[in-house]
Design goal:
With 438 residues, the protein is mainly alpha-helical. The protein has 20 helices and two strands. Strands 1-2 form a two-stranded antiparallel sheet. 50% of the residues are buried.
């Protein structure tokens, strides 16, 4: 069968592909198959891959500006609440409750996106809500108002994360899931590294938390501008799929591998310490001064950015085995950080950054191999909700152990993470069995 020439090929190459695809519905030629049904001609795979990479880079830039904003703010929200008269308990409840909401609402946001198909609209709402409240902290007059804004920022993040991940997953079929999520996470981590450094610079120059929050309005505005640009270029990211995603009934069950995988990742979440606990340890043990702690966090974020790219490539070659190896390596972070001196603690920070990279890249890339395309936002949201609840439980557990015994904290953290390995092996077998049947 000879295919007619593909009109608009130059325009497809020039624009990156997807925006043109949406406008070509009337001009893409068709041919007749033996059953006399029209068959649309799909874009050339090389051009489609370039379009997918361009989308991932653009959504990664959005994530970079976003993380620059909210991670910069989070680096000083604790001291800021304290300066407004909040107690340590209030700071802890605000931080923990915000994180719980930030994860717990993702299932609802993802389900709403899949049911309505309005991925961009929900993403815009979440990003706008999150970015708007950060500079408003500069004018908050008391700690209850500031606490409400801090929690609202986490809610905005919960709303936009599942849709962002689902749209990124469309590019995974062209680029490889590991590389698509790895590139985006590398840019994300880059923003998370720069944000606290910018805040430190503003504090050094102006000495005011409020000035820092006000300056963060700049990357917040850039987040929304880059989001608009990405939407205009790729109004329908589903066009990036190699094939149109099959539509499932609402009652279609999730694969058993999904629940096994969620249980495994929940164990890892329980064993993973929050950065504030690590920073508190450095402070109480007088390992570093207060001005050096943000630099160590930036080092962890730099390690996360590099690791995300490497892990993405490795995942696309070896699949779920990469998650098994990373789990073993990152289980060592707690003994290194909490039981060693500064040199070992720095190595532990790098291992901690490796684990954070895996959580936002290859761990999510695995989901694209488990869940059908039209249910990804729901799956990402449900996964993040379960992961976040487990993380919250782990935060309480590790906090109690920190006040009791550092040795117990290190041992429990490592063992709980290693307990995920059998579940990951079972998940891999389930996926292999499903693939062989398919």
């Amino acid at each position: 069968m000879t295919l007619p020439p593909f009109p608009g090929r130059e325009r497809y190459f020039r624009t990156g592909g997807v925006r043109s695809c949406a406008a070509w519905s009337a001009e893409v030629p068709t041919v007749q198959d033996p059953a006399d049904r029209p068959v649309p001609i799909r874009p050339h795979p090389v051009l489609a891959r370039r379009a997918a990479l361009r989308f991932v880079l653009l959504i990664g830039v959005v994530s970079a500006f976003s993380d620059m904003t909210h991670e910069g703010a989070r680096s000083i929200t604790g001291p800021f609440l304290g300066s407004l008269g909040a107690s340590g308990l209030v700071v802890s409840v605000v931080a923990g409750g915000g994180e719980l909401l930030g994860y717990g609402l993702r299932w609802f946001a993802g389900r709403a996106a899949d049911r309505t198909g309005r991925y961009w609209a929900i993403a815009f709402f979440g990003y706008t809500l999150q970015m708007a409240v950060v500079p408003l902290l500069a004018v908050s007059g008391n700690w209850p108002v500031a606490a409400a804004l801090i929690v609202t920022e986490r809610v905005g993040r919960a709303i936009r994360i599942p849709t962002r991940d689902a749209m990124t997953a469309h590019a995974a079929h062209r680029l490889g899931g590991g590389w698509a999520f790895g590139v985006r996470e590398a840019l994300d981590a880059g923003g998370a590294m720069v944000g606290p450094l910018v805040v430190s610079l503003v504090l050094w120059l102006h000495g005011s938390d409020r000035s820092a929050f006000a300056w963060l309005g700049i990357p917040a505005a850039l987040t929304l501008l880059s989001l608009v640009f990405t939407w205009r270029q790729f109004p329908n990211p589903a066009d990036l799929e190699a094939e149109a995603p099959a539509q499932l009934t609402d009652s279609a069950p999730r694969p058993p591998a999904f629940w096994l995988y969620l249980a495994a990742m929940g164990l890892i979440a329980v064993g993973y310490a929050d950065w504030p606990l690590i920073a508190l340890h450095f402070s109480e043990e007088r390992m570093v001064g207060s001005t050096v702690a943000p630099v160590l966090y930036a080092v962890a974020m730099a390690a996360e950015a590099v690791a995300a790219l490497v892990l993405g490539k490795v995942f696309d070659r070896v699949g779920l085995r990469s998650v098994l190896v990373v789990t073993v390596l990152t289980a060592a972070y707690a003994p290194l950080v909490f039981l060693g001196g500064l040199p070992l603690a720095v190595i532990g920070i790098l291992a901690w950054g490796l684990g954070m990279a895996a959580q936002e890249s290859i761990i999510k890339a695995v989901l694209t191999t488990i869940v059908p395309a039209d249910r990804r936002a729901t799956a990402f949201g449900l996964f993040d909700t379960g992961f976040g609840v487990a993380w919250f439980v782990g935060s309480i557990l590790l906090g109690v152990l920190y006040d009791t015994s550092l040795v117990a904290l290190a041992v429990v953290s490592a063992l709980v993470q290693l307990a995920a390995l059998p579940l990951l092996v079972l998940t891999r077998r389930r996926l292999s069995t499903t693939a062989s049947k398919g």
